[in-house]
Design goal:
The protein is an alpha+beta fold. It folds into three domains: 3-204, no CATH class; 219-549, no CATH class; 582-698, no CATH class. The chain has helices at residues 3-23, 30-46, 51-75, 82-101, 110-133, 139-152, 156-175, 181-204, 224-237, 271-277, 374-384, 390-401, 420-428, 433-446, 553-580, 584-601, 612-620, 626-647, 654-672, and strands spanning 242-247, 254-263, 266-269, 294-301, 306-309, 315-320, 325-327, 330-337, 342-348, 407-408, 430-431, 451-457, 461-463, 466-470, 474-482, 485-488, 686-689, 694-697. Strands 6-9-4-1-14-13 form a six-stranded antiparallel sheet, with no helix packed on it. Strand 2 and strand 3 (266-269) form a beta hairpin. Helix 1 packs parallel to helix 6 (139-152) and helix 2 (30-46) runs antiparallel to helix 3. The radius of gyration is 36 Å and the shape is elongated. The two termini are 64 Å apart. Residues 203-217 and 496-556 have low confidence and may be disordered.
Length: 698
């Protein structure tokens, strides 16, 4: 490998290490950041002879790529839309609070992906642009950002990045620097020192930290107890841990347990659920069949263990590992279920709920509230007092929390000296999903509604036909008993995983649509996600056929398109460099070669025995128009200069060669446009035929 390519490899590697150092701080942004950083680097290399233009073009390419991946993440699948742009804007606003709290690694969201790709790509472009002036400078941004990110999040990934950076320093040392070996030695030594620092720090301080994006296993697998007692801790500590994977034709929340007892500003599970979490054997429950459509989901546990299993809230049957049973508390296994265990559940497909004032029979546990601040009760009655039905009251509370006055933050702190619920509702108006669900449930019970809090996970994200649910998807949401159905509502204005309100938890916007962040513009229609089946005639359950999940093919198409762009740019760079290495006579020969090929295509090819100048004279003897005459003059410029350089040993100046190249290009285009007439037919030969005693033409 030549020294030039060795230096290029070292500078490109350093640029990508700088981008990776940013991407590793967020979940699910590494691939997009590296791809866009690579494209921006190639653009800078292609325009290395004009550094300022290359830098600007690289920045534009990175910004466009960051916007594309941000919109793709906001859209979820398929081509981005205007709605995806709005969702990305909302996610960027929420990302400010996430960045301020700096819980690493950052939770995957469209805003975080956009910022990671943008910042990582810009660092790569700047690093490669600095390398245009002096290859040693290409390592400076990578060293600084890598050390900074290693201090923030020491993981094995940082150690590998440090080793790669050290290799880049050695590559630049082997390639040599324009400013001498001394500078090369200093930079290579600094890179190796950075590699040793990151590897050592990761091995000591980061031995218990999980690298985002890699194969992760928590020290203690989360369970239903983790969700109930420390949901926020699960979101923060195990945000990037894959808890389970599911194949489901319907996007749904995954309910694990319900909290129906309100004591001292805390929501706790009922005694039956508590007993199940503590290890009691579930009582077999015979659920009446349902006439509703059902769908089947397959779940495989990865980093989750326990006996209360994640399942759609409307589950009516379960089978698989440890013989799970469907109980009013959820899907319960007869023995603890661990990683790599699989089970299958069947659940009712959500259907609309009628707006009726009647409610089903609710237990005292579902309506008991106890003593709450008078201001909270007064606020609840003010919001729901104008609604005659249970559904109307629940939707009024949803609209109140999603009106834009409240904001999501995973670790929001309430001021001391004030009741936490009062402070959340009247002062900070900022909290986690637990605070939104709990406040909703309190105000709903104060308005006379049977309410409980469900804990579990949001729908997760599709990945190659399978839905992946991580610790960052842990969530809590309220359910209201309307008629005989537990209807789920989503008061949290910004969910942990970044979307507004994904399909699966339902509210005013209807099935499969996100709940709005402001007052509804359409008549409210709620659809249940959770339900307790009611008695119905015994009929077979029609099964909804499984449908493909997501459109992951778009992502592979985007990556393929990016690789094609990179390949095209690489070919352009190599062609330009090959031309820059040509001698003047080589450029003239190549220019006339393009003219020869154009002449052959138009039927006026030059015979091999005829010189270029002689062929030009032959063409000029024909009757032609003004455009053809101009093309012949351009051809004469090239042929004349080529003849002088070939036979007269004339030294050609660069200006003459450039003018000849432009003239040849004009002539080639004119020839292909058909300005020259076709070849003239030779004069007929007159022969005397002895048989006919006559002269003939042949």
């Amino acid at each position: 490998m030549s020294r030039t390519w060795t230096r290029e490899l070292g500078m490109a590697g350093a640029s990508l290490v700088a981008a990776y150092s940013v991407a590793r701080l967020a979940i699910g942004a590494t691939t997009a950041t590296i791809v866009i950083a690579f494209i921006g680097t190639v653009v800078v290399v292609a325009l290395s002879r004009r550094p300022v233009v290359g830098l600007v073009a690289g920045v534009v390419a990175v910004a466009a790529g960051a916007l594309w991946f941000g919109l793709y993440a906001a859209a979820g699948s398929g081509l981005p839309t205007v709605r995806a742009l709005r969702d990305l804007h909302v996610s960027l606003q929420a990302a400010r609070g996430v960045l301020a709290s700096l819980h690493l690694p950052l939770t995957h969201s469209p805003g975080v992906v956009f910022l990671s790709v943008l910042l990582g790509g810009l660092l790569a472009v700047v690093a490669r642009s600095l390398g245009t002036r002096s290859p040693a400078l290409a390592l400076v941004p990578a060293v600084v950002v890598l050390v900074w990110s290693t201090i923030l999040l020491p993981t094995p990934g940082a150690a590998w990045a440090g080793l790669v950076l050290g290799g880049c320093g050695l590559a630049l040392f082997a390639g040599g620097f324009s400013r001498g070996r001394k500078a090369a030695t200093v930079v290579a030594s600094a890179s190796l020192a950075a590699a040793a620092l990151t590897a050592g720090w990761s091995a000591t301080a980061g031995s218990d930290v999980v690298s985002p994006g890699g194969p992760v296993v928590p020290a203690v697998a989360p369970s239903a107890l983790s969700l109930v007692t420390n949901l926020i801790g699960l979101e923060s500590r195990d945000a990037n841990v894959v808890l389970f994977r599911a194949k489901s034709p319907v996007s749904t929340y995954w309910q694990v347990a319900t909290l129906s007892t309100y004591v001292g500003n805390r929501w706790l599970p009922d005694p039956a659920t508590t007993a199940l979490m503590n290890g009691s054997v579930p009582m077999k429950t015979t659920l009446p069949p349902s006439t509703s459509r059902v769908f089947t989901s397959e779940v495989t546990l990865t980093g989750y263990s326990g006996r209360l299993l994640p399942a759609p809230p409307m589950t009516v049957s379960a089978s698989g590992a440890a013989s799970p049973e469907v109980t009013p508390s959820g899907v319960v296994a007869n023995a603890p279920v661990h990683a790599q265990s699989s089970y299958t559940v069947s659940a009712v497909v959500p259907s609309p709920v009628s707006d009726t004032a009647s409610s089903g029979a609710a237990s005292g546990t579902d309506t008991a509230l106890g003593s709450i601040p008078r201001s909270v009760r007064s606020l609840a009655l003010t919001i729901t007092g104008g609604q005659p039905s249970s559904l109307g009251k629940a939707e009024a509370l949803t609209d109140y929390f999603r009106s834009g006055a409240f904001h999501y933050k995973i670790d929001a702190a309430q001021p001391t000296g004030t009741d936490p619920l009062v402070a959340f509702l009247t002062k900070t108006r900022t909290g986690s999903c637990e605070e939104f669900a709990g406040a909703f449930a309190v105000m709903a019970r104060a308005s006379g509604l049977a309410t409980r809090v469900a804990v579990g996970f949001t729908p997760g994200r599709p990945d190659n036909g399978v839905t992946v649910i991580r610790g960052s998807d842990a969530h809590a949401w309220p359910q209201v008993l309307i008629g005989d159905t537990w209807v789920s509502f989503e008061p949290t204005p910004q969910l942990p995983s970044g979307e507004l309100s994904p399909p699966g938890v339902l509210g005013p916007a209807g099935l499969g649509q996100a709940n709005p962040t402001g007052p509804p513009t359409q008549p409210p229609v709620s659809i249940p996600v959770g339900t307790i089946p009611t008695p119905a005639p015994t009929t077979p359950l029609p099964v909804v056929p499984a449908a493909p999940v997501g459109h992951e093919g778009w992502l592979y198409g985007e990556l393929a398109a990016a690789l094609l762009v990179v390949a095209a740019l690489s070919v352009a760079v190599r062609t330009r460099r090959r031309r820059s290495r040509m001698t003047p006579i080589d450029r003239l020969v190549a220019t006339w070669g393009s003219i020869d090929r154009a002449l052959a295509r138009r039927g006026v090819a030059r015979p091999v025995w005829r010189t270029p100048m002689a062929h030009v004279h032959e063409l000029s003897c024909r009757p032609v128009g003004d455009q053809a005459h101009a093309a012949i003059e351009d051809m004469e410029v090239v042929a004349s200069l080529l003849e002088q350089a070939t036979y007269g040993s004339v030294d050609l100046s660069s200006d003459e060669v450039v003018r000849a190249a432009w003239a040849g290009e004009r002539a080639r285009k004119a020839i292909l446009a058909g300005t020259l007439p076709p070849a003239v037919q030779p004069d007929p030969v007159v022969r005397f035929d002895l048989r006919s005693n006559e002269f003939t033409d042949s």
